[in-house]
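Example 3.2
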Amino acid sequence: MEQPVWQYESGTAEPSAAPAPARTLVVDLEGALLRSELAYEAFFADVGGAFARLRAKGALSPAAVGDVLSQTEIDYAHLPYDADVLNRALAARARGEKIYLAAGRFARHAAGIAAHLGFDGVVAPADLAAGAVPFDRAAIERINDRGTSRRASFQTWAKALRVYQYAKNTLVFVPAITAHQMHFATLGYALLAFLAFSACASGAYLMNDLLDLAADRQHPTKRHRALAAGELPISSALLAIPALWGFAVAASLCISPLFLGVLGAYLATTIAYSLVLKRKMLVDVVTLAGLYTLRIIAGAVGVGVVLSEWLLIFSLFVFTSLALIKRFSELSMRQGAGLADPSNRDYRITDLHVIAAMAAASAMNAVTVFSLYVSSSAVTPLYSRPWMLWLLNPLLLYWFGRALMMAHRREMPDDPIIYTFRDGASRITVAAMICIMLAAI
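Structure, written as tokens:
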């Protein structure tokens, strides 16, 4: 998108006039250079600290909030700057022109950004317009394209809402499928439960990305997330979160109050995970496994079937293994990129071998639980040929082993469940499992 430029032209001059003064480029900080809102950047840079300082002030006036945000430390090096605007400014600097930032608020942060990027200083837009700054107005060029007001595209929203992660929410269909309750009404309630969980999860993803802005921008792949890259305004995300959660509540009430309770437990756990639990070693893994299992519990509640204790125990071991594989993959990629230990996780790169061992052990426990299930009397009412279920064991061993190997080779950039939907060998393995289960009925 070409950015409009306001340029003040000098009048005509006599051939004998003095040489034109050196030109000056003034770039609006929040209108052009920064692909985000500075106030929100300051707030989410240290949410806990901001609230603590506001409590200490004992006031929530605009002046108090502004003062607190002005004192918050921001990582200026990783803010989402508009590359085109920045390149134009640096090109002007290379031509010998002066470059200034125009900022009407947060003077301390504006000065820090100017110093970091090599600008000559900061001016207030009002002073510039009133001619209160000693610039030759005939030699000023100004860039102000209102970059932060540009609407996010559909693809940007889909990326921010993690629509591809909705595949995880298909777990709500598992209780109906395993109980062989494939009726129209049952599938309708399961679909409604899927939509409720998807909306709830999208709101949680937006909130998590807001809280992780600083850490995501230093990550080799997460820095491309919509909020971290400045593709989606923070203000838009703050409006979308309550809207998504409101839809989730309305859809849940159409199912049952009990389902709403389970969804509420999922959301509360997700918020606790985003704020605290994900920074606790292994607590984050157990929490992730619990969140996956809650989807299955919600599916059972939504369609009104009794949840099998075998399915519940099997799910816990499966999702614990996948959560450990996810952590292993993240640490392995950091090791390959030569990065330091993650600042927002309580893990070290030297933990890789232990995490891999725990992931493999949990996977083997899942296979053992499944074997015990096939050997039990619980399969007789559901399957006419239960012996065929034994064929699932080698497929499970292959699938878990392949996932761990791909993570070890740093070839699993996605969450293991999402990777399963994208990996050809994994899709074939899952399809074979489904065919075996159908044949065993």
